[in-house]
Amino acid sequence: MPSTKDLRDRIRSVSNTAKVTGAMQMIAASKMTRAQNMVANSRPYFETIHNMLTKVTNSLNNQEILKGVKLLQSREINKTLVLFITPDRGLAGALVGNLTKAVGEFISKSGSDISFITVGKKGDRYLSRSNENLFGNFSVSDRPTFSETLQISNTIIENYENENFDKVVIVYAKFINTAVQKIQAHQVLPIETESDDENSNDYIFEPQVVSLLRSIAPKYVQNQVFHSVLEAFASEHSARMVAMQNATDNANELVEGLTLDLNKARQESITGELLDIVGGVAALEK
User: Fold this and answer.
1) Nearest to 247 by CA among 87, 92, 29
2) Torsion of CA 110, 116, 119, 124, to 10 degrees
3) CB–CB of 217/72 below 8 Å?
4) Spatial CB neighbours of 273, under 8 Å, sequence gap ≥ 6
5) Which of 247, 210, 227 is nearest to 16 (CA)?
6) Taking CA atoms, which of 60, 141, 164, 207 is between 20 and 30 Å from 22?
């Protein structure tokens, strides 16, 4: 058994670790609450603009009109652009590993040339190690705003309209709840607008439909990118809070076990000293 000094040193070290992970858990919990509120507030707007775009598109009897809106045009897929959203930091459990695994599977299944735009240092480092084509990288603050993501979405829109890429996909972690984050690979461009709305042909549009679609489509892409970033941040903070909570609980359990070992070691030491005294007294009496 280790000495009492070694056990005290280990207890002190593990206790200090528990304090650090406990502090990180509190910080992550605070950020998680704010990020969850931002996601909850953005979802209704995103769903509304998607439904609006879907209804307008499916109301057209003449599909030739859609050829005037490049963001709705499908073409042969030769080049794919992937927006890969990851955390800047680790200590978020299996989140980063699951994201990189999903991207690896996407690369292996894809039959086209793939380029990447990254948001987050973890994704940037992974792609650098994998020797993948990095088209661009961006960073956003812990409190992302719509204006921060505009440069990302405008870059995507411009390159798709210029036919530099034939398909755009976002890979990110969708926030489900505090304990669950689902990895998504969602197609952004061309915009998918399938709908079962039977009344989609009952609309009269003013101004012209093409002008309306040209106005709505970019806004949809911009909000898709912004909403995905919010989902990714909420997932990151949730995963980190859970990971730090588990680390703190494990550290506290380890401290309890080490404290028990320390008490046993002290008891053995005291018992040994008493036996030495008793043996010494018995020897003097002889």
Assistant:
1) 92
2) 100
3) yes
4) none
5) 247
6) 141
Among 12-16, 118-122, 178-182, 270-274, whose mean pLDDT is lowest?
270-274
Predicted confidence (pLDDT) per residue in 102-139, tens digit: 888 888 887 778 889 898 888 888 888 888 888 888 88
Q: What value does the CA radius of gyration of the chain take, rounded to a whole number of Å?
A: 29
C-alpha dist (Å) from residue 143 to 16, 61, 140, 236:
30, 43, 8, 13
CA distance 137 to 285: 85
* pLDDT tens-digit series, residues 170-214: 999 988 888 888 888 888 888 776 655 555 455 666 667 777 777
Token readout for 176 is: 């489900």
Dist CA 33 CA 18 (whole Å): 22
